[in-house]
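ok so I'm stuck.
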Amino acid sequence: MQRARDVNTAVMELLIMAYALKTACARNIIGVIPYFPYSKQSKMRKRGSIVCKLLASMLAKAGLTHIITMDLHQKEIQGFFSFPVDNLRASPFLLQYIQEEIPNYRNAVIVAKSPDAAKRAQSYAERLRLGLAVIHGEAQCTELDMDDGRHSPPMVRNATVHPGLELPLMMAKEKPPITVVGDVGGSIAIIVDDIIDDVESFVAAAEILKERGAYKIYVMATHGILSAEAPRLIEESSIDEVVVTNTVPHEVQKLQCPKIKTVDISLILSEAIRRIHNGESMAYLFRNITVDD
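replied:
not stuck anymore, here's the structure
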């Protein structure tokens, strides 16, 4: 599935194509979706919908019988489907890039941009025999910045509550100021994640790493969405290089920002297609892959 200018258009085209093949009595309909859209919306947030599960149901209803994708945002997404999903990994290609393209990579520290990304960063650090650091907290916002609807809906002043019912209130979370757990002084910092879309958090992480003594900063991820003003923000930031794979086309962004580099992962996708077509085992493509990868 190619990423169109509008992801919703691409999804509808895929659904219509799959349904046309289904009505034409195709025995198997395999979708190759390197970046699975809406993968970040895979958990229930307050009373919101789980859009990723809805999309999985739509693909099954349209007639797909198998999906090849890469680095799902949450591995549990595979459970949304009623048919096989091969979730390939881009980490071998990114690890190879680190070893071959980053000078003096032995003096690097793998950095997790948040505690949520710590397992991924730990996997990279263990394979490369490098140190690990984790960024915790968030940039402090002014009161004006907080007025963006994140606390909506507003509280109802005159809400009626049953006289005998007193529900305990959950204390609001308050993250500490952004800080680094681990030593990056005099080292190359390599931030790893699965998706780069809005880059403000990566830029803020790069600034704090510079303050802590990192002399070069790389950002590596599988999916380079790089929407809105991402190329300009990267170009003006302390980030030296952003390395992403070609699961999502980003030729325009590369023209706007020479710091963006691409790693080609077409080899593993083509091998997966070949193996499925010939009825061969897919286990070879998942060798040495662990739960945390």
